[in-house]
Write a structure and sequence with these properties.
By secondary structure, the chain is of the alpha+beta class. It has 2 domains: 225 residues, no CATH class; 221 residues, Nucleotide cyclase, GGDEF domain (Alpha-Beta Plaits, 2-Layer Sandwich), CATH 3.30.70. Helix content is 60%, strand content 13%. The protein has 18 helices and 10 strands. A hairpin with a 3-residue loop joins strand 4 and strand 5. It is rod-shaped and about 135 Å long. The model has no long low-confidence stretch (mean pLDDT 87).
């Protein structure tokens, strides 16, 4: 009992906090009731009641006013018939559907009172009058409760006031028809009012519960959708909504692409209370660069963000997303890398660290393939030679002999601290002249490298490497 009361209170609180939405739902429900089977059923019952009353009054009782009984419910029937037609031509009419339904109910109640008047006034003799009043007495409570039972107002107090007015209308009408008949049926009017109000409360509480459950379920679905959108791309969400499996939403066939491995030089030496916020800002700016030009038919964007690795960031150009422009894949990859260095400098300036913070990137072109993890959380990942080689190219800066070459070239440019971009030979050879001119060539057979026993790992076909230094 306590649990049910708490549920009812939660429904009430939710409906109060979402009064506008609740009002809209009730309006739509009232319009649906008028247009669909409840309205059609009510119209059929009113027609049947008119026919039976007319037949009984004219044929069995020879009531001179019998003809009038055939039209007492005409207003109610007209409302039901005309509402769907009128709403087609006047759409704002649907906003008043709860009031129109109230008008239907009061018209039905008044129609019943007219029936009572015609039947009583048309009684031919005393015994017939006693007979018809006895029959009518059993209908008053039922008709009043039926008229009062269903309402679509946001506040139940409005429904109670409405029901009270219905009871007053019934009482005044019956008093006008016959003081004696009214005196005999005062209790029936009270019964009809309370019975209709109790049924109305059950109906109202059910509407609140339905709105609460439907809305919170929709809120939950929206929340899940919003959270899922943090894990997958928009096109994946759309395909999942259409019934597709997650594993079918991203390319899985082997392809070719350029992998970009980004890392911050000497990141472990950074000492600042907002170091984590700094890296989050960097990765967020990189994500924005990757998502430039994103579209899903076909899949394309500036780059594909593969993963964040603490102080590193790995992205791919050309797989699984196509590049957004018509330039060569190598041009797109180098252009993206330069944009990332620019955004990194912006974040470093905002970080306002006491020492220079520089980064490095390695680019490699080779085979790459998409995959979903076989169990647990099915996150999308890439594997292939390109990832291994790009990682090794980025790590070349850690080779003492190469760092010596980089530093010597930086002094010639007047740079003390610098970013370094190292690219594979195949990428350099695929660049347009304007990008190719940025890079400095290192011959891997250079005596300085041979004397220092330098060996190129994971790219045995490489004859040269190329680097570009940035401030």
């Amino acid at each position: 009992m306590v649990a049910e009361r708490r549920k009812s209170e939660s429904y009430a609180e939710y409906c109060r906090n979402h009064a506008k939405d609740f009002k809209n739902i009730l309006r739509d429900e009232a319009g649906t009731a008028l247009e669909s089977w409840p309205g059609r059923t009510a119209a059929a019952l009113l027609v049947l009641a008119s026919v039976i009353t007319f037949y009984d009054a004219s044929t069995l009782r020879a009531n001179p006013l019998a003809n009038y009984t055939a039209f007492t419910y005409s207003i109610s029937i007209g409302i039901i018939v005309l509402y769907p037609i009128a709403s087609l031509f006047t759409s704002p009419l649907t906003k008043y559907s709860p009031l129109i339904l109230d008008l239907l109910c009061v018209a039905g109640l008044v129609g019943f009172c007219f029936n009572v008047y015609f039947i009583i006034e048309g009684a031919n003799f005393r015994s017939q009058l006693d007979e018809v009043t006895f029959v009518l007495q059993g209908q008053i409570a039922f008709v009043l409760s039926l008229s009062s039972a269903f309402a679509f107002h946001t506040s139940f107090y409005i429904t109670v006031v409405r029901n009270f007015l219905f009871a007053v209308i019934a009482a005044l009408s019956l008093h006008y028809i016959s003081v004696d008949f009214y005196a005999d049926n005062r209790l029936s009017i009270v019964e009809g009012f309370f019975m209709g109000t109790m049924i109305g409360w059950v109906f109202y509480d059910a509407m609140r519960a339905r709105f609460y459950l439907k809305s919170t379920d929709a809120d939950t679905r929206q929340h899940l959708y919003n959270q899922l959108s943090k894990l997958v791309y928009p096109h994946q969400l759309e395909r999942i909504k259409l019934g597709d499996q997650l594993e079918n939403t991203m390319p899985l066939k082997e392809g070719k692409g350029i992998i970009n491995v980004f890392d911050v030089q000497k990141s472990s030496d950074i000492r600042h209370e907002k170091t984590q916020d700094f890296f989050m800002g960097v990765f967020q700016s990189f994500l924005q660069i990757c998502m430039k030009g994103y579209e899903h038919n076909p899949l394309r964007s500036q780059a594909f963000r593969l993963k964040e690795t603490g102080d590193g960031f790995i992205s791919a150009v050309g797989y699984p997303f196509l590049p957004v422009d018509s330039r060569s894949l190598a041009d797109s990859a180098v252009s993206t890398a330069l944009l990332m260095f620019e955004s990194f400098n912006v974040e470093v300036e905002k970080f306002n660290y006491s020492r220079a913070i520089k980064a490095s990137m390695g680019l490699a072109y080779n085979s790459v393939q998409g995959t979903f993890q076989s169990g647990g959380i099915r996150s999308y990942d890439l594997f292939g030679e390109a990832l291994i080689q790009a990682s090794k190219y980025e790590e070349l800066r850690k080779q003492p002999i190469l760092w010596k070459i980089f530093t010597r070239h930086a002094r010639g440019l007047g740079l003390e601290d610098f970013h370094v971009l190292i690219v594979q030979e195949v990428i350099y050879n695929s660049l347009s002249p304007s990008y190719r001119d940025l890079f400095v060539e290192i011959d891997l057979n250079d005596p300085e490298l041979v004397e220092n026993n330098f060996q190129m790992m994971y790219d045995n076909d490489a004859k040269f490497i190329y680097f570009h230094l940035l401030e």
